[in-house]
Amino acid sequence: xxxxxxxxxxxxxxxxxxxxxxxxxxxxxxxxxxxxxxxxxxxxxxxxxxxxxxxxxxxxxxxxxxxxxxxxxxxxxxxxxxxxxxxxxxxxxxxxxxxxxxxxxxxxxxxxxxxxxxxxxxxxxxxxxxxxxxxxxxxxxxxxxxxxxxxxxxxxxxxxxxxxxxxxxxxxxxxxxxxxxxxxxxxxxxxxxxxxxxxxxxxxxxxxxxxxxxxxxxxxxxxxxxxxxxxxxxxxxxxxxxxxxxxxxxxxxxxxxxxxxxxxxxxxxxxxxxxxxxxxxxxxxxxxxxxxxxxxxxxxxxxxxxxxxxxxxxxxxxxxxxxxxxxxxxxxxxxxxxxxxxxxxxxxxxxxxxxxxxxxxxxxxxxxxxxxxxxxxxxxxxxxxxxxxxxxxxxxxxxxxxxxxxxxxxxxxxxxxxxxxxxxxxxxxxxxxxxxxxxxxxxxxxxxxxxxxxxxxxxxxxxxxxxxxxxxxx
Length: 474
Hints:
six-stranded mixed sheet; 18 helices; 6 strands
């Protein structure tokens, strides 16, 4: 039997692994990087980026924002790419490399793009209304109350209600996520575990069809989650199943947070403020719930046919039905959509692929309804609205248009392709005449050839300040 109390030989390769430590010198008067000023310290091995709390233990929430800014800088816009795609497909029904299905979908999309002035206005109006989720009489009353009483407590209560309302209005989407995630988990589990999960999923589907939210939550929290936790503990599955379980837990938390009772309780908290009590104080619980359900239903209106058709083409292109070029084009399109729907993006976003006067055009629009005078770093009084319009016209090129509107005064700056530089004065005159036609004061109208396309952050520097980003923590 070996003597286990004796000193063993060092591990090969680590014989010289001696960490240098600063010697304690009692007479050294120099104290470096004091971890705690209330205590007497000596020189240590701390760096200037360390303190009493270890940096590794703190979650860096700002890293998500930095990742968003990085994606925003690298993605740019897709106006030129999509305009080239639309122009190259104009008048063609079948293209080499496309399957019959996606070729037919593209043909339908191109037929829907031809619009006149009125149809273009309706399309733009529908795009902007769809990008504003919180609209209607309920949110008009909330905004009015916040303007009358801009207190921190009212703002906190409104934000708490909005979180619950958002989860409540997304009930159908969350339920589909729950079903899809559990189905995907069963694909990556051994049969002896997936069979039991399949039975639990069938029970969940039955409860969801009956609109039994309470029963579905009891099944999820009391049966399915413990079963999946035991599975991960027994099999030591640290791969796809565990990642899917994290998504499942998030959806369960949102599903519970968006219950009608929880939303009503949060709304009753708002009725303690006089402006909101004036609007909704005479409603009982059933009328309030019906009112909130109607608002949620209006927020989930189906998209316009053109938008649905564009998404259908994108779905097939992302599956590889149209080849690598088409997939790359729609990958850039989907990246742009997702970035502009980020909680860190305080702007309204719309895309307009249209054909007017025989020319294909793809446009992207960003609107800030609460812009400030960033040029001087302070507001010059009155509410301002700023928009950035990027549009690429077939055979002409890319244009950038920035418009700022404040107190019936409008400023516009147009960047046009270099070959159109002789027409800059004409552009300025046309913009001024359009403003005068609408009864606006054209304080500044400028047109110049484009040196480089404008970035979103140049026009809207408030993105870096995170003033209007949304806290979506559950």
